[in-house]
Amino acid sequence: MAHSNHEILQLFESALAQMNTPEEPELLYSPIIYSMSGGGKRLRPVLLLITLEAFGGNIDEAMPAAMAVEIFHNFTLLHDDIMDNADVRRGKPSVYAKWGGNVALLSGDAMLITAYKHLNRISASVLPRVMNIFSEMALEVCEGQQYDMDFESMEKVSVVDYMQMIERKTSALLSGSAMIGATMAGASDDDVKKIYRFATELGLAFQLQDDVLDSYGDESLGKKIGGDILEGKQTFLMVQAMSRADAAQREVLRTTHLAEELTNEQKIAKVKALYDALDVKHIAEQQIELRFERALNILDTLSIDSERVAPLVEFARNLMGRKK
Q1: pLDDT tens for residues 118-141?
Q2: Cis peptide bond N-terminal to 45, omega within 30
Q3: Distance in angstroms (rounded) separating the CA atoms of residues 226 and 154
Q4: Running DSSP on this structure, what letter comes out for residue 4?
Q5: Does the pTM exceed 0.70?
């Protein structure tokens, strides 16, 4: 009997609650417990388990792999917060803010090692293939983060470069998780490749939507609107605007976040006015729709029947906040 997506989430949360983290040394392990219990959508382990079950795999056998991808994801957040000097994560103090950079660094290292320890508990028959997918995924995330950091000091970033960056930084964890689920369930090489493409396209749509919501969303979503603009961050909207702007407009886009005479609200309004003039929100929404539809179309080509595919469609729609 297949589980619903909600049931899979509950099964994962139950496994996570039973994770046996040592108590000492306290400053190494307390931050790990703190970060892992901090909520989050558990997107990656849930996608892994949904994909696995779609191809007829056993959830209990794959739970260590699901634990590994979630621990790895949270490890990246600990280190991201150090690099970004971020005080808040998921609405509460980050590990970096609460314990300092050295603790966040070492606890993050321990989480990465713990992720590999969980991975080592899966069946020896699939371990080499899964280990390879996991390691490639982990390296891509690091590459994506470096490109993202590189972009901070670049005057102009191409749309192609930006898409390649988010494919590594955001999509790689989703596509790697889905591939692990399909591989552990014994899916064909062709289906594993299709699942990879599905999750990649979905991850791109998800990140682009996040870019749009940061500037045009509702604060009820739990994040301050305009944060990316105030940081001068290279998002899809900014990259598109820079590519369409004239010299004077580009200067405004480049310097507004640094203008000390403007309030934060004025900075956000000034950049958004240019975004509107250059029609970049509409371009982003078209790209989101294209990527999302492409992801769903790939699911139609899998070798399994539509009933088994349905939970993957539901996952994609829920991720993007789609009702139908």
Answers
A1: 999 999 999 999 999 999 999 999
A2: no
A3: 21
A4: P
A5: yes
